[in-house]
Structure formats: C-alpha cells, structure tokens
C-alpha cells in the first residue's frame, strides 16, 4: 500500500482528493493536515465523508509527512515550496496541486505570483504533470507540478494542432468558461450564490495567472513562441470548464478528425468525440476526463476546438491521482473509474 | 457473474442504474432496452458513458430478457406488470423501480394510477424493497417493488418513532422538498430551466401518488392506521430530497438520539447525525445514503426529523442495486461505495 | 417631494430600496450612507444603477440625516437604535428594516439579539409595519418597525384563520423555504454558490430570531398565546420565500376561500389565488406582493396555506416603501407597480 | 393613447412585452392573441400578471388587429409574414420580434429559415430596428424588424471599431454566451433544468441562424464584407447574453475609450463602462440596456469587447418597446425605466 498524505485538505481540491482516494485500492491515507481545522474529524467538516473516512485533520508536521511515500499539496500558492525540499531530501515524493512548480522561469513565477520563489533550483527538476505530454518523465519524477485547470483544458485542445504545425501559432485565442469552484472554497462576496448565480462575466482579462502557464505548454508543443489571447469567464455553476479554442489553419486539406483521434488513441482519459459534436461539461462532472470535438464552420480557415473537463477532476485532483498512479507504476485508471454524475 | 438486464434505460433512473452497474464487480450488463432509442449506442445518448459501456439500446424482447438472472424495470408506471409474470415464470427475478408492485391493495392501486392492475395476484408476493424494513424477505424475493423516493425519505425518518410508539400516529406531517429530476427525463414546459429554476412551489397538495405508499409504510411500522399530511415541493436543483417531518411526542422522557442510533446501527446506508445537525441533500448527492437528524425545539412536544436522500440514489437506482445485492447474497455495499459529489 | 435618506445602503435591502426609490415619483433621494464605501459612487458598487442614480455613499452624519423627512435603516441589527432617538427628536420619521423595534418586550429582544436594547422606551411607540394589520397606526407613526421576511409570509398566511378562530392556535407549524439573499450580502463560505446551490437544508431549527416575532404577530391575531413550530430552510436560489403553513381546523363547515378573499379584498398587495392553486415564488420576484392559496387535502381537519413573497420585496424593501407611502399620505401603490420578473 | 396588439403572447418575448407594456403610460393594450390559450385569462397562465392586467388571450383576428395602431409579433419565425401585408395595407404599423424581416436577401432568408418568404417585396422596406444604427429610419417606418438577441449584443460591441476602420474586418470572432430563455418557452428535454443547469456547452457551431443577420449588420457598419466566426453557448441561467468579441487592430495608437464613449454618448440604453471593466449580465437583467467594456491585454494587437444584454430586454421586448417609442414620437425611455433586478 502506498502511504499517502494530503497537506491542506479543507479546500475543494483537498476534498476531491479525499473523495477519490478513499476508494483507491492501492493506497492508505495516513495524514490530512489543516491548520484551521486541526483536531476536527474530516466527516464533521465534510458530511459527505461521514462513514467513509475515519481520520481527523492534523497540524502539518514535516517529520510525519516524510514518513509517507507521497504527499499531495492542496494548499494556497507559495506554501508547498517551503516544505518540498525537506520532503524530497527524505525520499518522499510530491505532487503539488498549487502553482509553485508549474513555471520553469523563476522570474516569471515571481512576476505572476508576487513573491520570490523559495527553491528555484527545483523548477528545472519538477515535471509538469500533464500525462498526455510527459508520461515518461512523470514515471520517475520526485516532484510533479500538477497542471492548472485552464491549462489542462486549453493545452489538450490545441495540442494535436500545434504539434503537427496545422495552425498559425501567433494568434491563438482561448475563450474559457469555468464553474465557481475554480475560485476555491472561501468566504467572498463575489462568489456567493447571490452574486455568482444567474449571471455571466469575464474576469482577469488583462492577465490571468494561468496565461504564462498555458503559453509555456503551447510553446513546448509548438517548438517556438506562441501568441495567445486568454479570456476566462465565470459561469453560474459549481464544476466544469469549457474551453472554446480558435486558431487559423495553415493548410486546407487536413483530416482533423484523424489527427485528434490518432494523437489521443492511447490516452485513457481523453475522449475525442465525433466530428460536429458539442461536448458538455456535465458529461465529465466528477470524472477524470477531457472530452474534445473540433469544428470548421463554413469550411473556412478558422478551426474551433471545444474542450471540456471537470476543473476539480482532470483539472486538479483527478489528474493528481492519475499522476500518482503513473509515478508508482499502478494501472493509470485505478481509483478513477467513476462515471460522471449525469444528471 | 450475475446477468443483468435493464428495461427502459433512457430515463434518469435508467442512466443512474447504468452509472452504478458499469463499475459493479459482480455483474455483467447484458441488455438495455428502449423502444425510442433502439439501435443507438448508449454513449451516444449519454456522453458521460462514452468509453465506459459498449452497449446499444435494443427493443424489449421477453425471451432475451428471460435469459438474464435479474431485470430492472426503469419504465413508466404500468409497463412492468405486463412483462413480470412471464419473467418470473422463466425464473428471472425482477426489481421494479416503478410503482407497479408497491401497493398491496389492487383497488387502491387502480384508484391512484388510473388503470386496472394487470397481475393483482402478484401484489401479495411482491416484497417492498426497503432493506431497512424488509431485508430478510428481500433475500429470497422473486419480485421486489423498489420504493419511491419520497416514501424512502419519509419512512426512514419516522420509522424509529412509530415502531416504538413514541409519537401520536394520527397527525403526522411530511413536508418534502425534491429536486427536479424526480419528475423524470421528459420534455415539459414546467420542468424547463426557465420555469423551474429560481423558484419554489408546492405541487399535488390535494393528493400525490406517493401518499398511499407512504401511508402503507407508516401503518406497517405503527401497526395501525396513520393520519398523514404530505406536501411535496419542487426545488430549483437537479437531485435531492429533503423531508422535514413533524410529529407529536406521546412521552417526554425519551432518549431520541439513542433511539435513532440503535435502530440504524447495523444499517450500512443510514447515517444518524449528531443531535442538532442539519443534513444537506448535497451530502448524499450521487450516493446511496440517507442522513437523518432529529430536533425538539424549545423542548416542546413536537419532534422534527430531517431526512435527506438523493432521489436517484437511495430513492431509486442506488436502492435497487442494494436490493439486488441482498437478493443475490452479495456484500450489500458492492457497487455502492461512491462518495457523494461535494461540492 | 419627500426627502429620503438611507442608512446602510450596501446590503441587499439597501440596493432593493434604491432600485425602487429611483423610480418613485414623489421622493428625492438625498443621502445614502455606508461606512465601508464612503466616497464611492453607487453605480460603481452596483452597476445595475449606473446611469440611474448620481449619488455617492457618504459617512452617516446625524445632522445631515435629520434634514430628511424620512430615514430608512438598512443596517445590521442593533445600529438603528443608536440613532433613532436623535432623529425622532429632530422630527425625522424612521422606517427600520432591521429588527431593532420589532419586539415589544425589551427582555425578549435582548435574549434573541444578544445585547441590551438602547432605547426600550421606544418599543411601545414603534408601529409594526405590516399594513394589512396596522395601516391606521402606520399613517401617523414616527417610527415604523418593518417586519422580517419570514414573519410577513407566515403572518399573512395564518391571519384570516386566527382572526376568525378557525384553527387551534396551540399547534401551528410553519415550514418556510427561503432564497439565499435572506442571509444578506456578505462573505461567507456557507452562502457561496458552491456550498448553497444544488442543495437544500434546514437551519436554526432549535430557534430562529424570527420565531418570537412571528409568535407576537400570531398572538395578536389570535388574541392569545399561540404554539408555533417554525423551521426555516435554505433554498438554492437568490430571492423568494415559500411558507407552507399547517393548522388544525376547529370546525368543518367553513368557506375558506371566502374567508381569505374577504379578509384581503381591499389589500393592494395580497393576492388570494383560486382554491387549489400552488403559488410560485417567481410569480412575485421583484414585486411587492404576497400570493396565497389554501388547501384541505382529503377534506381532513388539516388546513394548509401556501404563502409566497419576495424576501427583498414584500419581505423587506417593498414593504418599507409601502409603509412610507402610507406614512406620507401617498397612493400606497406608488413606486411599487413593477410586475414580477418572470421568467 | 396608442392602441397596441400582441400576436403570440405566450412565449417569453410575449410575456416580457406584457410586463413592460402594462406600466407604459402612453399605450392601451387592446389585444393579445394565442391560438393555444384563446379564452384563458392572461393572469391564469402567467400569475405574475394577476391583478396587473385584465385581458384574455384571443384567437388572432386580422380585422381586430388592424384596429390597433401597432402590432407586435412575438410569434415563431414565418408567421408574421402571413399577416403583415394586410396590416400594413390597413395602416397598422408592425414590429416583428421574429426573424421574418431581418435579412434583406430573400434567398438567404429561405436558406436559413427553410421556407420561401411570403412577401419578399417588403424586405427592402422593413427597417432593421436597432435604434443605435437606424433611429431616423425607424421614426417613419411602417414595418420594423426587431433584431435578434445575439445580433444586438454583437453588433453594438463591434460597431465603433468597424465604423472607424479600427480593426481588420476579415477575422472577427464572437464567442457568445446565452441564458436558456433564448431558446423560448417550450417543452424540450435539452432545455429542462436537469439537462441545462450545472453545465455549459456550445451549440450550432456549424452555423446559427443569427450568423447571416450579424454579418449583415457588421457589413453595413464596415461598408464592406466581413469575416465572422460566431460560436453561441448555452449558459445555466435564465436571462442574459454575454458576447466576448475579438478583433485585430489595424493601428496601435487609438484611444478606444474615447471612441466608444463618443459613439454612444447620446444613446439612452448603451452604457460604456470604464476601461478594464467586466460587465455582468445580471447588471442588465430585466432592463433595456447594453453594457460594454473593451480590453487590450498586454497592449497587443487584439482588442476584446465585452458586451452584455438581457436577451429578453434589449435583445427582444425592451428593444421592441424602444422602437415603438421612436415610431410614435414618444420619449424613447417611456416604459423602459426599470432598474435591473440585482441580486
């Protein structure tokens, strides 16, 4: 059994990790930490876990954590990097669901996250945990930077097009729509039901923190810099990301359906839908899936890719479990077999 | 492996059965019928099941169905009763998620369902499939009448109080709130998002079809007739039932917490919360659970029980799988281990 | 023109007052105060008011407020009572939308609101601003205690039955369902979209602050004490209260439809629906209306009244404007003619 | 008083017209027709209008309609064109909220709406009722084609940029998000609460009927053909459209804020927000407003315009009333002064 710890278990990525891990057959959940809720039974805070998990939150204790085989960080940005060097030195592997190790350039990280990086020397080693890109590197990684939700949905959608030079990389547009859980579990007027339901709005159009992360992913796929306009929107719903991606084709005679199907044929958690499909976010609610479909209206030069994930699933906790399975040589599907909750 | 068939797989109880059964380790799903969608791939109608289930809807064929060990009927009221006698005669066991076999009295059935019963001789044999009441009888049942969603939530809440004569049975009140999926998957103006979201209303106050079913359950628990006022309400959400139950206590010195805990201690799917709790429907969303808590405001003579279920889970498909597990001697929890989807 | 000031304009009752008052033909809005937002343009905080209102929030200044003819308090409980004595002494009339002057008994007030009352001598003078009960007293009132949302919905529903001794007053039940805006505009995890949508729960079953207020109202109508069980529930929607009221009839041969219609015939904002109706909260969304219907299932001894209001309309700001109209001799309908927003 | 008739009053544009017109001081509502509901009191179908409107639906009768000064058609596409020639010949003016007279080219109309046009000779005369474009022509129009909801939001957002040649017209992108009421009041599985809430999806990516209408508008503003990619999405909410518009700037040194403010300064129902704003659809819910803001992330060559309307307000019934006011020489704001319903 793989001994697992979770640091920061009271947010939405934390509880989603718990939801997945309590039914994972190959792990034992040893520790779940929370400073604010230390001593409280998990089922007391999250009644959905009553009678499913007999564990209480504890203060984060580095020594105790280092007794685990792997630690998931589901903490605010900037926290994991204070503990990761110690854990790695003790031989404990780490999957960080926050942004601490996602950008390769420490200056860029500081610019977007507003603080100097605590262990920039680890940025090169950290493996960006998108299995569809980096499966081999993940297998032996000590430290996995679990991708952001928007970067996952956007990168998977553009990937085949950029890898095969099918589109012009300088004018990519990603119009993304996210459920409110992407903002985390917190007390805030703007994400209250009265303010966030029955309305739609864009946010952070001037520059969202996921912009440099997506650009880094796409530049890798494109083997060169990309020009990306990224506009996130808040949707009146709990879970789900719908990315609507626009690019201009470089050539007219492409079999795009074959391109996408070939690229993702071996992927257990990417589903290329038939041409002309309109994937819905609810089709992946609670599941570790990305569903994709492409369109080319009026046979023009614009290709549109529709890409949906559950921001807490393939966009966070599901992908983290997938990474753990890869790191420990398990079947990649273990603990991730749930069917999406529909309706 | 238990060979399973589903008749009428395109409604919400049907897709919920599929969601549960595709991950059930002891069954093989042989047939799923639908007249309207015959020939269509299940994943085509329900994209959440793409890559999870390689099966297509077929016309209902009695001979093919009788080759299964058990058939779930997820059909409109009045359909199962036309096929059940044949299936039973062929040795196939039946779990009916509709109302055909829930009432013991054929006249009462005809009065509420507006048609004569096709096989009234089976009503006595049919076992009402509430495991917390009838587990022993379910084990050997050929025909299980799976309870309605409201009856499940209301009966479990009143059960300990009535069995132990703690309340006056003649003036029970059940104020129940249901998500819209209780109305089924159908084209109707009144359940459209524009008509059913951002609003609350009562319905069928003059008499809902679940009234006689609940009365029958409560009369059984009470060993005598009960007076019940039942008011269902439509909530602006997809899943969940919240039953708020009111009764007048017959005696003042009762340890109600102990009463409830004792009654349900051995039950794998009933969770008695600490005194003073307010169970939420989302704590059981997608799960086969009933959570309960009782209150006695101002130490008065009125006891209030709050009982929540997922109307498609413990209120329909989850309970049906629980019944199947009992009928076939499996661990009652198999296929029902999912944690509720929260948030 | 009546000079109007609003103290505490940044909550939901405050913005609803603004929405109504900017189109009221007989008033001029002079002042709107907010400590937290002083200096900020109203349309900057509430974009819905851009180009409708050229006013900025200011610090509350007693002298400036006393230059108004009437002040609305849309403040947290306990604030109005610190300013009201001064304003009354200056001849400024007051409508308090908080609870400071709703209870007649200062000890009871202290018990439920957790602080001593600052001007208990005014409690007797304050007029409880339910026009359907107290229209004559409101006309000349200096100080109106605007009713709570639950008390409005519950009182109007029970009123005809209690005034005419049609029901037993000792076992009344009010099962009430409220939209989330009833909790006010605030940063709180429990009212965030992710926690409060797609779920239903009861709260404060042990004792809600509106309980003594409702009891006081019903005792007045009943000319004697009443026994009331009151259970509020949180609904996954923004606006609306649905009160489901249960009482036991004292006599069987009553024409309840006539009773309700007669009682409310002259009321501009109470709509008695045809017998057997199921009023919806959306039918009064944004409007100053209470819609009612009664039921008597199976001709039994239990009468059920369904009563719906918009908690921010007839349950708060709409009723406050109605009270102002009465106090200043205006047509009671002025500024309140909006049709509910449906869909 | 202007005598007004509505043909087809049972859909959402019909009820929204009623909501606005019952409080319009200069009109008298004479007729409201519905084949399906003829004889039924309006308040019986729409309880929000109880005690606001004493009128019943009637069968559409051409002679009776021609006694009105103006007829609003709130009917399915293809119906108005069968009655309009007669009404115009009788001197009755017409505002068609459907699409019958929106396209200038009858072949294009037939291609998108699937039937030959019944009176193509009127297409040239019909005035496209976007006041911000065609106010002068609307004043004397006999026949106004009220714009679609998407075309209104998209056109107003691109208008200043195209009129002043600020952007390249060949690669415009409109990513639009609409509430479900845009689909009309109808019985359909796909717009039921259980299917359309808690999910987001694109639809009609291959070609939506509003595409040629938007192209026609933008080509007019651009004085030449435009290349437009238009992707509509369904949002889990009742009302509102959010259009996110992308274009490439032709010049770098533009004062876009001044451009937008100058263009719309005199417009009573277009609100240009401060640079960097994120307009929300709820800020116009129930109101006849379009709110706009522009962004230019990282000072690049892409300009983004965010444009929000209420699809039933400025996107349908509100705009129709605005057109009526212009046609009859009234103050353009009459009957349209409501503040948006927030929260």
Structure description:
The structure is a homotetramer of 343-residue chains. Chain A has 343 residues and is of the alpha/beta class. Helix content of chain A is 30%, strand content 20%. Chain A contains eleven helices and 13 strands. The first copy, chain A, has helices spanning 12-21, 42-45, 62-66, 80-89, 106-113, 131-139, 149-163, 193-196, 210-222, 256-264, 313-327, and strands at residues 2-7, 27-33, 70-73, 93-96, 127-128, 143-145, 172-178, 201-202, 228-234, 241-248, 270-272, 290-295, 302-309. In chain A, the strands form two sheets. Chain A has a seven-stranded mixed beta sheet with strand order 8-9-7-10-13-12-11. In chain A, strands 2-1-3-4-6-5 form a six-stranded parallel beta sheet, with helices on both faces. Chain A is globular, with a radius of gyration of 20 Å. The model of chain A has no long low-confidence stretch (mean pLDDT 97). Chains in contact: A-B, A-C, A-D, B-C, B-D, C-D. At the A-D interface, β7, β8, β9, β10 and β13 of A face β7, β8, β9, β10 and β13 of D.
